[in-house]
Amino acid sequence: MNPQWWTLFELIPVQRAFIALLIAGSTLPIVGVWIIGLNIIPVRFAMMHVALLGVALGTLAGFEPLLMGIVLCGVTGVALAPLAKRPAGLSGPMGLVMTLAIAIALLVLSLSGVNANGAFEWLWGSILATRQQDLVALVIIAGSILLVDWHYRRQLTLLLYDREIAITSGINANLLTALLMGIIAIAIAAAVRLTGALLVDALTILPAIAARNLGRSLGDMVKWAVLIGFAGNLIGFVMTLMLNQPPGPLLILTVGIITLASYTYRPKE
Q1: Which domains are assigned to the chain?
Q2: What's the whole-number mean pLDDT along residues 2-6?
Q3: pLDDT digits (tens, 9 = 90+) for 16-26
Q4: Which of 50, 71, 151, 251 lies 20 to 30 A from 110 at CA?
């Protein structure tokens, strides 16, 4: 154990990581609630591979890999949205996108002679490697998530509960789904670059799963998800500094334990 772990906050990388984790931990769990409500949990894996394709294309063309990954994920998410109205849902198309994206990414890397290890490192980023531009992108994405959640809360409640009820209530389900899919895809791309693929679930799905066990309404789920995401990731990050261990495993374990504990909750009838 590091007896003077708090002195690490004097380091700029640790300060950036701490700020990024506070922002991500208090906003990306809302995206997790949307993912569970839309029943598109496989979207994480699909967008991780699309992000890798964006990195490969950006590296080949000389553009910022983060920007290319985010843009390509956003476009792909919006393009997939119309398929949500099909009875089979989005799971199949996302599996296809995931497979095609990784195949094209590897082909681009091979044809261009770009170092594949450098591209794959993008998928295994570390919170301690957060750059200034990563923080800027995260702030913009976090603001978009909060704005959509606040402005469309009633419509979201109906859409995530039952798409048909939302449509009969006069809600443009296709447009709202496209908006959600675009933001979800962009948020996942940013989270992968910020924390690495391992940590995406600690910021999105795990807090949302716990919130589903604890909340009875969409509003309750969002509040619980934000609280758990914020507290769990904060505790995990402090433990990382105290124990001098990699952040990914400890953050996942901390939020995961909270999620497991949520299954013991028994709501009053």
Answers
A1: 22-200 (1.10.3470.10)
A2: 78
A3: 989 998 899 89
A4: 71
